[in-house]
Design a protein that fits this description.
Length: about 250
């Protein structure tokens, strides 16, 4: 087995000696940050299907000027959020729109950009999160499942994909409310995507209609996750309404 490469600048110590104003001192070597970011990417739970997705790889349509402009606007909003973080007016990002509009790609791209800045990030699919939390209530649950809810509460940046994709029974709404309320109260950023319809003031789709998904028989985000959670999400997040465009996944193929 080949030995790991040792950094030539710090000889593997993680520190380099620097001189400023005639005084010598130590500071972190660039390899420390590169290794730290690499580790955080590895434990971020980003699905393999999105391993190669980034803001740089997001593709705008070339054959439809209207769709291109509409997607360029939401891409710019997402990119500015990632660029300015954490010096943003709202710590979170909420992407609302129909399936296939590129929401998850943009969300993952933003999460990766924040991890590259040194912030700990975690991806969780909404349905998988609820499944893992439900399992943790079993007395047979292992330590990995027992730490799920604590981790999503405490991680620096949480990406919650496809919010509201599961039927809203009482315990689900309670869990979502507790999660969102905790992160809201502690100003912990959330990047969230949802297919649920939700009026967004000042936004229109290309068809001139209110943006937002049409899943779950026309249910709104507030009806599925509760009005309290919906209100806090809108207060803590920069809301980006995806335009009604052709299926992004099909276009990429």
């Amino acid at each position: 087995m080949a030995s790991p490469t040792v950094c030539e600048k710090c000889s593997g110590t993680g520190y380099i000696v620097v001189e400023r104003d005639g005084l010598s001192g130590a500071e972190r070597c660039s390899c420390y940050f590169a290794n730290r970011v690499g580790h955080m990417m590895a434990v971020s739970n980003i699905p393999p299907n999105f391993a190669d997705k980034s803001l740089e790889s997001f593709q705008l349509p070339q054959d439809n000027p209207i769709a291109r402009q509409a997607l360029a606007d939401v891409f710019l909003q997402t990119k500015l959020y990632a660029r300015d973080f954490p010096m943003v007016d709202k710590p979170g990002l909420l992407l609302i729109g129909n399936p296939g509009t590129g929401k998850t790609h943009l969300a993952v791209g933003a999460l990766k950009a924040l991890i590259a800045k040194g912030f700990e990030g975690l991806f969780y699919d909404y349905q998988q999160l609820l499944t893992d939390i439900q399992r943790s209530w079993s007395q047979q649950a292992g330590s990995q499942q027992e730490g799920v809810f604590k981790r999503v509460m405490e991680v620096e940046v949480l990406l919650l994909d496809d919010l509201g994709a599961r039927r809203a029974i009482d315990w689900v709404e309670d869990v979502v409310t507790e999660l969102i309320t905790y992160r809201y109260n502690h100003r912990k950023p959330m990047i969230t995507t949802t297919n649920l319809s939700e009026p967004v003031a000042g936004h229109q789709t290309m068809a001139g209609k209110t943006p937002g998904g049409v899943n779950r028989a026309g249910k709104t985000l507030g009806e599925i996750v509760g009005e309290r959670s919906r209100s806090r999400l809108f207060e803590m997040c920069r809301v980006v309404a995806m335009p009604a465009v052709e299926d992004y996944r099909m276009r990429r193929r």
